[in-house]
Amino acid sequence: MPEHACDPADPAALAIIGGGAAGVIAALHALALAPAGARIVLVEAAGELGAGVAYAGDRPEHLLNVVAGRMSAFPERPNDFVAYLLEQDPVGTATAADLANRFVPRPSYRRYLQARLTAARAASPARLEVHRGRAIALRHGGATLSIELESGARLRATGAILAPGNRPRPLPGTRDPDVPPARLVEAWDEAALAGIPEEAAVLVVGAGLSMVDVALGLDARGHRGPLHVLARHALLPLPHTDRGHQGDGIDASALVGRPLRAVVRGLRGLAGEAVRQGRPWQDVLDAVRPHVQSIWRGFEDADRRRFLRHARRHWDIHRHRIAAPAQALIARDLAGGRLRLHRGRLRHLTRIDGGVRAEAEGCGGPFALDVTHVVNATGIAADLRDTADPLLAQLLADGMVQPDPLGLGLATDLDGRPLDARGRAAPNLRLLGSLRIGTLWESTAVPDLRMQAADAARALLVPR
C-alpha cells in the first residue's frame, strides 16, 4: 500500500486514526460510501493493517472467541467472513454451515480484513491513503480538523474516526527499581513470550481471555514449567457450547429497564428454566446479547458502580467465553497441577537470583511466588484519566473530550460523538471500540464494531 508523508492543500473527506480491526472495518465502509474523488486517510503507527493487538500474531492455537458466522465486517453481508474462508479452501470438505459454527485461528481474520480492504480500494471511486505514523494531536482548525503525527507531518480532514485500539492495563502493585524489565512481559508481546525457557516458572497476572492466550501459546511452544495464575476473583472464562449460538425461543426483553438486582434474578431464572428444558445456560446469554446495550443504559449510576464492583467478573466469564478446545487445555493443565490458580492481589515485585519474587495478598493473608517471568494479562486499560496515549492525553488536556465518569473510556453520546469538557458533542468526530464502553457496554466484539464503524462512516460521509 502506498505511504504518504504530507497532506495536499484540500482536506481529506475522512481521517481514520488507527489501522487495527476497527479502523480497517471503518475504512471498508467509508470506501463503499464515499463519493467519486473523495480522499480517505488511514493513520496507523506500525504493524500490519487489520492486526492491532487482537490479530497481530500468527499462532494457530489462538482461536477467535466468536464463531466465524458472526465475524463478518459487514452487517448487511453476515456470511462474508465464511465466504472468504471458503474462497481460501475451494476444494475443502467443509461446508458454509460447518464453517459458520467454527472457531477459526485468529490470523485468518487479519488476512480476511486485508483481502477485503484490497478489493474495496480497487472497487471504490474514492481514494484511500495510508499514512504510517503515530497521531499525537488533533485540533479544530475552522471547519476542518488538523491531525499532527509524531514525525511532524500534519493532515487535515473534514471529519475523523478515532479507533486507537486497546492498550494493556499496567501491572498492579509496586516494584523495586532493579526488577529487570525483560522479566516483565505483556500478554500481547509474542516475541517476549517466545523467549521464555521451557522449564521456567511463570506468573500470569489476570485470569481472563489474555491469560488463556498466554497459556495456549506457552503450551504450543513446549513450555512445561509451572504456570501460576493470580487474579482477584480466580474465576476462569467458561466455554462455548459446540452448538453455536442458540438463543432462539428465549425472551430476555423483560430485563430491559430493570435495576441490577432484578436483572440478576431474571438471568438466574432464565438459566434455570433453560436447564430444566435440557438447554445449556449459554443459550440464555446468547438471548440476552441483543438487549445488553439497553439494559446497561437503563441502569442508574449507582447500579453501574455496583455492577462494576460486584458482578463484572462474573458477567465476563459467562459472556466472553472461549472455544471448547481452549477450555479443555486449561482444564487439563489445572487437573495435572501445571497450572496453579491463586486468588489474590499483586502487591509488590522484588528482584531475586534468576527471576522475580511476586508478593501477593490473598484471602488467607500474604503469600509469595518465586518465578522467572511475570506476564501482565490484566486486560484492557479502560480508565483513560491517566492515559499514556499522547493523542488521547492531548484531547483530554485541551477539553475536546472528557473521561467517562466511571472510568470506562470517554464520555460519548449514543452516536459515538465524544463530549467535550462542557458536555457538547463534537459533530465531526466519532469514536469506535473500547473508548465507548461507558455509554455502550458491548463495544469490543466484531459484531459491535462493524455496526459502530458503518454508522460512523455514514454519519461523516453521507449528506443529510
Description:
It is a single chain. This protein is of the alpha/beta class and 464 residues long. It has three domains: 192 residues, FAD/NAD(P)-binding domain; 120 residues, FAD/NAD(P)-binding domain; 52 residues, no CATH class. The chain contains 13 helices and 16 strands. Strand 13 and strand 14 form a beta hairpin. Helix 1 runs parallel beside helix 4, helix 1 packs parallel to helix 13 and helix 7 packs across helix 8.
Structure at a glance:
The protein has 13 helices and 16 strands.
The CATH topology assignment of the largest domain is FAD/NAD(P)-binding domain
Low-confidence stretches: 1-5
Number of domains: 3
Which band does the percent of strand residues land in? 15-25%
Protein name: FAD/NAD(P)-binding protein
Organism: Coralloluteibacterium stylophorae
Transmembrane segments: 12-34
Domain FAD-dependent urate hydroxylase HpyO/Asp monooxygenase CreE-like FAD/NAD(P)-binding: 15-166
Descriptive terms for the model:
464 residues, FAD/NAD(P)-binding domain, 3 domains, 8-stranded mixed β-sheet, disordered N terminus, membrane
Strand and helix map with partners:
Blueprint: E1 14-17, H1 21-33, E2 39-44, H2 80-88, H3 96-100, H4 107-123, E3 127-132, E4 135-141, E5 144-149, E6 154-157, E7 160-162, E8 174-175, E9 184-186, H5 190-194, E10 202-205, H6 209-220, E11 227-231, H7 260-276, H8 282-288, H9 292-298, H10 301-319, H11 324-336, E12 339-352, E13 355-362, E14 365-371, E15 373-376, H12 390-397, E16 429-431, H13 446-461
Parallel strand pairs: 1-2, 1-7, 2-3, 7-16, 8-12, 9-15, 10-11, 10-15, 11-12
Antiparallel strand pairs: 4-5, 5-6, 12-13, 13-14
Helix pairs in contact: 1-4, 1-13, 7-8
